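dumping these here so i dont lose them again. two proteins, back to back, each one seq then structure tokens. dont judge the mess
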Amino acid sequence: MAIEMVPNASPDDLSEGRRLKALAALVLLWGITGGLHMSPWGALVVWVVTGLVALYMVRIAIANPIYAISPNQSSLPNALGMAALDPTALSPEDCPQVSVLVAAKNEAAVIANLVDSLCSLNYPEDRYELWVIDDNSNDGTGSILDRLAHEYPKLKVLHRGPEATGGKSGALNLAWPRATGELLAVFDADARVPANLLQHVVPLFANERTGAIQVRKSIVNSETNFWTQGQAAEMALDRYYQEQRAARCGIGELRGNGQFVRRTAIIQCGGWNEMTITDDLDLTVQLHLNQWNIGFLTTPPVGEEGVTSGIALWHQRNRWAEGGYQRYLDYWRLLLRNRLGWNKSIDMFMYWMLQYMLPIVALPDLIFAIALRQSPVFAPLTTFAVGVSYWGMAMGIRRTQNISLPLAMVLAVKGTLYMTHWIVVMAFATTRMAVRPKRLKWVKTIHDGEAASA
């Protein structure tokens, strides 16, 4: 069933409610930080917590990513498990109807290439369709799509006017009720989609509790500069922990581009949430709360353009950080009630500590340390978190590039340096959320299409 965060709440009420919850969390965590500094047992408490987190992360690291086990103990082939399935053996009668959805806002530079590739997928012609939603573009995207619709009968175009709301979620919600597919595939306009992708994804939905599949993302312009190289390392890090978490506790996460969702699952969730700035992260939590599993496919990956400047990265990652934190604020009651089950609940709590709590307490921890002339109390946990990130990145690079572990560990040093920006981004985003509500709007990444011709 659809999960209402605040019944009948207006966007302004919801935004203010999030601000107050973020403020309460900020005050509580800062207060705990001060209390740990003042207590003679504070350092010991942090060391104990660090030890417990370390034990959990070791459990994640030693998981076998070949097969994940669902709550009913049936085998769930995940990314590496696809090797056991032969996608070329997929007969036409075994191919479910797939509806491919693309929300496009000012994508004139890339939309034609995407439509051409999506209309040429290696999948039975009568078993998939393409819907592209022009979301009030002002750069000619709409007229390009109308022209392409005459060239490609498979393409169906919808237009949204200036009065439309809900951003990307609103665009997807306009299309999916009209679509006929049992599976809904969502791509960004800059996606590089392998022709055989559907053949690899569809068999993973054989398990009835698989509500969605996320395909690994790769950065197609990874060699452009330091920023794109860092994003490629970040995708390797994401790959590693997606595989390990899915294998151990069943927590997979959607990443927007290259996500496949079962129609019955999206119906149960009430469509995409139009009151969030990160539709994929919100849907991730809703699916797990409704007892669906999310799988992860590593090969073949879906390509996308990485942002090429620090400023663009800052804006993009601030949106991601806020959307990621937002879901804890929206669904905290259900998460505390253990709606996910112990396995998934503990996992989400652990990653909340590493991803959100540590950046939130970093500033007060430093202030107290300077004022009291002692070491930051969270230093052990912070050091461990950096180490966990480094190890996951090295292992992800090794799997992605098929290179030796020593070489991957060398490459991960540069990637870890790049990843330090997340500490600043998380601290800034979570603090700002407690002070100033953010107006819900679609802030899209600009795609210039240069990577397509590279």
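---- next one ----
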Amino acid sequence: MSDADGLQLDGLRRRNAAAVLRAVRTRGPLSRTEIALAVGLSPTAVTKITADLVRAGFIGETRDPVPAAREPGRPRVPVELDRTRHRFVGVHIGLRRVTVGLVDLGGEVVAQRARAHGAATRPGSVIARARRLVEEVLAQDGAGPGQVLGYGACSGGWVLPETGVVRELPGLGWRDVALRDGLRIDGLPEPAVDSSVRALALAEARGGAAQGVDDVLYVFAGNVIGCAHVLGGRVARGRNAAAGTIDHLAGFGGARAGDPCSCGRGGCLRAVAGDAAVLAAAQEAGLVPAGALIEDLAAVARGDSAHAAAADALLAERARRIGAAIGALLDLFDPEVVVVGGGVRLALEHFDGLVAAAREHCTLPHEETPVRPAALVGPSSLIRGAAAPALDAFYSDPLAAVRARVDAANDRMADSAG
């Protein structure tokens, strides 16, 4: 057999292993016969692949075999993900805090920590804090470096995945910060770095509100407003990794439409519908104190104080403005599904208003396109999003992780022998 034939066979084996593991993740527990039917491989091939995946600790047999339907002989023994042995690290750099955690092979969070920046927002301080939190969650879970199969990190702003550099993060005043280099930890895989919006979009497409959908538009409305397009299972980044920057969509009227944005223009989407803009309006009206968060405004709106109606009106107006932007995006991308996350998720009573505004502001017939709230919420969603690129890379070629661990073990043996 030639080298080329060997490479082709190796590539086929790796692709088949990826297909089997994805089937177990999304549909498991499954018997080997059911896996063969799901991925279009022979039972013999599936038996060999599942044996490899069991040895690697990625899947295991369930404790309760089920009888084969209408078939004599041994009961079928389904296999499922082994969620106990391997971990993925997720690091989220937010405007107020660092959130770090571990997820298992199914993408579920098993350990997490968070720490506020306080006054220490310089890149070196924040990144050092993140590294310490990674070490803490590994200790909390009892996971050793050899159990970590992937390491992902994300932040807001403009992020360059190829180099791992945060090109610009206005909320923290960062420019050209080498996030990937700063987060490296001996014994762990190299961090896969991306923007928070793209990472969250991938997490929603893989295990959230758009699971199994190939064409997903994710819109995030929080301290920043952005969107990400997952098409054919891949996140579109654009030539400069700046795709999805919709903060400065213009033409949004209203009471604060004249307020300047950071770009120097008025009426930008972020200047009227971002968290900071909504909170500024709320503080101006005496609804919340200085330093309040969007969660605090949502709590006032749900309460029974004299300010509840005014707070609720602000959140309703914000939802309509985000909806109007989504209407334009529906025309632009024509997706199968739209998923909406961020601060608007805190006031779901206004989600119907958001959807109505989206329908009103699109010109093409998108009535059948679902617009859904994000399924992943809270601090755990940030961890799942941060880990999503690393988890996705693993599922595209799980046998590469096995090879990387063998190579790392050989390197450690060579170093100790030297």
